[in-house]
Amino acid sequence: MVWRSDAELIVPRTAWREPIIFGHRDHLQDMMREVVAQGASETILQPGEPVILEIDGEFRQLTERQLDQGEVQQIINWATDNDKASSLLIQGQEIKASYVVKDPVERDARGEKKKTRFRVAAGRGEVNGEMAYQILMRKIDSEPARLTEGELPVELLEAVTPRNGIIWLSGPTGSGKTTFFSAICRHILEQRTPIRGNIVFIEEPIEQTYDGIPCSHSIVFQMEVGRDVPTWEQGVRQLMRRRPKLIVIGETQSRVTAEAAMAAALTGHPVFTTLHCNDVASMPSRILSFFDDSVKQQMLYDWVTTARVLFNQMLVPRKGGGRRVVLREFLIMTEELRQELLDIADPGALTLRLKRAVEEEGCSMAQAAVSAHSAGLIDDETLARYTRARTTH
């Protein structure tokens, strides 16, 4: 396909002007400052297409000219600060990194240049029958978000700061999982909760930083897989030796990370981690998919034993346009519910019981959609999509 837009090019909000060719790393920094000024959530770069921005859920064209393969290859190296990154892509490896844009004028609370971070993901594929690369740069808020007043019910706010066990957060890519967890971490740093002490993160890459948040009872230490430690397993092993009071594992995406999260929780640590699945009820089956049949029953037992709160969230269009709205389903895993679930050996039956528990004891996605619609945040079409999806699931 060839990108075709009936809309006019984006009007620049900074002094940036499209270069004749992206030939210097400063060209990327200047362009990304414009991306920040436009309020774009994602930037997509690939050969044969202009630079595309996603703004409030809609694609917009930033550059008039299409990028060529050599430019995209060079941009990958700049965005990852790794001159070998494009060579790794040729070998079929996926590239993950973080990229920082520094504002030339604005300063943060420490008097340093204000920074905006982007999560960089690059991979190899095919365009017009030839090998090509695609880069996606997702904006991360410059500082951790805050939980808005009333965003979480009181009992749920207490439940997300346990003395031990796992808080699971699921949702598709780009659904605001990092933003939500960072808001909870900020709440922990700014308030008096049971979690106080050494708060450690292991991520790939580091997305959100907490340097500007004053705190008298805790410190934050962050590690990046591939930069600070070679593997997730080694990173978690290191963190466990530092007497952590909270462990944040950026994403559970394999047997190693699932085992690490549950092992940490079983030894008395609170753990935050994310997972890719469609809803709260499907979490057990997603976790079990990482393991061989011989250990699935034990892993299911460990998962139920350590689970404290289960979340799933989506970002949906706001009625009238603007910043998208979060729809969030959740379930607090009470001691009584965990004991009941431990008696259910069949994963399918467990999924059905969790689905019923979400609807009766927590908040389902359909219920969240009804609340958002009543508040005037989403339109009838969005409401119907989520209520229909849940009633026919």
UniProtKB/TrEMBL annotation:
PANTHER family referenced in this protein's UniProt entry, alphabetically: TWITCHING MOTILITY PROTEIN PILT, TYPE IV PILUS RETRACTATION ATPASE PILT
Organism encoding this protein: Trinickia terrae
Signal peptide coordinates: none
GO MF annotation: an example: ATP hydrolysis activity
A Pfam entry, by short name: T2SSE
Lineage, uppermost ranks: Bacteria, Pseudomonadati, Pseudomonadota, Betaproteobacteria, Burkholderiales
Classification via InterPro entries: P-loop_NTPase, T2SS/T4SS_dom, T4SS_GSP_E_ATPase
Domain Bacterial type II secretion system protein E: 130-290
Family in the record: Belongs to the GSP E family.
Highest taxon, organism lineage: Bacteria
Protein name: Type II secretion system protein E
